[in-house]
């Protein structure tokens, strides 16, 4: 299997669930790879360090086929409204649950188009940036599908969660939670959102997701 197809897997299967596909990346207090280059909504290459120099950033990863990310959009938009001094951004990564209708991305143009279709489809109000086709930044920060990082103005990680939980993130931003590192953690997403996201990806995505559930829970409890 090529490195590209290993990252952009064609279907979500239980045997994919492991460090080969989901790595946890950097930790709290580590420098965030701010020199990374991503694409903005106009397809322009953006250096994160130059764009957000001296700013505090909340970065969340997501995709059209990630139920956890989609379930958090409304709460994250609310957080962005409540903390206007912080830059809230979304990094569009690989499809978590590729299917018949929304398969894994095959080109950078396709990935960029999906990132900004998401903006309209889900009323996403945060800035969206598309990662490289082979997950250049995603691989550095951890390849979980719905990571969240808070990055301080000096470019260091002050908070990290493998599966975003907006309520806990709010507590951190309000000063109640100092920092959090995780190697494994559970995620929570309501059935209605999961079904809606997986159904639009295609029937096979829904089947693969359901088949994977027992192993996913086993892995998170280890």
TrEMBL record:
InterPro entries the record matches: Thioredoxin-like_sf
Gene3D superfamilies reported in the protein's UniProt record: Glutaredoxin
Name assigned to this protein: Iodothyronine deiodinase
Annotated organism of origin: Pseudobacteriovorax antillogorgiicola
């Amino acid at each position: 299997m090529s490195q590209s197809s290993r990252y952009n897997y064609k279907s979500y299967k239980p045997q994919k669930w492991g460090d080969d596909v989901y790595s946890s990346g950097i930790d709290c207090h580590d420098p965030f790879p701010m020199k990374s280059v991503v694409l903005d909504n106009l397809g322009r290459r953006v250096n994160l360090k130059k764009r957000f120099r001296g700013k505090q950033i909340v970065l969340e990863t997501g995709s059209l086929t990630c139920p956890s990310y989609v379930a958090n959009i409304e709460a994250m938009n609310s957080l962005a409204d409540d903390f206007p001094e912080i830059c809230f951004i979304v990094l569009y990564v690989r499809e978590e649950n590729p299917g018949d209708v929304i398969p894994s991305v095959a080109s950078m143009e396709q990935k960029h188009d999906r990132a900004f279709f998401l903006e309209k489809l889900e009323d996403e109000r945060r800035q969206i940036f598309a990662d490289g086709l082979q997950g250049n930044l995603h691989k550095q920060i951890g390849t979980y599908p719905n990571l969240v990082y808070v990055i301080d103005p000096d470019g260091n990680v002050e908070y990290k969660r493998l599966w975003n939980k907006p309520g806990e993130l709010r507590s951190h931003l309000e000063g109640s939670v100092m920092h959090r590192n995780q190697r494994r953690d559970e995620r929570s997403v309501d059935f209605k959102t999961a079904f809606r996201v997986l159904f639009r990806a295609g029937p096979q995505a829904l089947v693969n997701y359901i088949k994977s559930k027992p192993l996913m829970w086993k892995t998170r409890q280890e």
